[in-house]
Amino acid sequence: MTVASLLARKGVKVITIEPDQQIRQALALLADHNIGAVVVVDPGARPIGILSERDIVRAAVRDERGVFDRPVSALMTRNVIVGVPQDDLTSVAYTMTDKRIRHLPVVEQGRLVGIISIGDVVKAQRDQYQGEVDTLQFQLIAEQDKPAARAG
Fold it and tell me: What distances in angstroms separate CA 137 from CA 96, 119, 141, 142, 144, one per listed residue?
């Protein structure tokens, strides 16, 4: 299964924000859309960063009064790890786990085309494995229902 097949089921809508917008605006987007991260984009809609709830919480612990009026660019992760639609979900799961990232923007020809979460990947893999188990169980039942061959 690929990232493209996951996005085909999930959808390609991505909530984005610009780097000069305030953290309070980012928090409103996160809350309104019930998501854990927003992709920070330049004027050409190319991803230049990502901002997660965790980034904001960590900054708020250090500076609880001033964090909400700071620009998104002050807290965003700049070196964003991205995927492409052709990526295999097994390798994506490994990368996300290894790099400890929960959200992976998906780009094609430099443009943002979607985002997946580690939860999306786990659910897709679970569904795939369940389909394989169901197929094997069906085959086993069908084999058991065949009449026994008679010796002649």
Answer: 32, 27, 6, 9, 11
Other CB atoms closer than 10 Å to residue 4's CB: what's the count? 17
CA separation for the pair 150, 73 (Å, rounded): 76
- 3-class state of residue 41 by DSSP: strand
Note the pTM of the prediction, 2 decimals.
0.79
Domain ranges of the chain: 3-145
**Distant-in-sequence, close-in-space partners of 76: CB < 8 Å, separation ≥ 6:** 19, 40, 48, 49, 50, 51, 55
Which residues fall within 8 angstroms of residue 95, CB to CB, at 6 or more apart? 81, 83, 101, 104
47 CB neighbour count, 10 Å cutoff: 20
Assigned architecture for domain 3-145: Roll (3.10)
Residue of 65, 67, 31, 71 whose CA lies nearest to 49: 71
Whether the CB-CB separation of 19 and 51 falls below 8 Å is answered with no
**pLDDT of 59-76, one tens digit each?**
999 877 789 999 999 999
